[in-house]
Write the structure tokens for this entry.
Amino acid sequence: MFESLRNWLFHDDQGDFEQFKQMINQPKLRLPSNFAQQILDLELELENEQVNQKMVNQLLELYKLGTEYYGQYDDKRYKIFTEKASQLLMKSKIQKAFEPSQKLESKDAISTAREFNQNNSLMRSMINRDLQKQEENIQLRRQNRREFLTQKKL
């Protein structure tokens, strides 16, 4: 994909341009029909019930899907999902779901706290990197779309 895009950008070869147009017209991401309801249900469960990692991961996956879906259309709503994911991870109730279990009683409190902080910062950095990559992909798609539309106008 990037090879033909590079060729199209740096050469006037009509074949590469046609190939690029076909890539642009490929099927886009789609949201499940019950996307909003799934998010609402999970958000309500996290507010009212005992939080577990599975629920948090499911909700983060839906936020990621929303970010990618709206990002491909240059819709500003993708920022809503990135902010929701960030806010979710900042909640103390959510952070407790990722704390080490009480089975680690043999460890002293200091080592347990250090381990939790390391895991928590690692998880945040992984999510931030993922969100940054999504943002970069969205920006690249926007740029490609602008160039394509500019070329189309010419």
In short: The chain is about 75% helix and 0% strand. Residues 33-98+107-153 form one domain. Helices lie at 2-10, 14-24, 35-48, 53-72, 77-90, 92-97, 109-153.
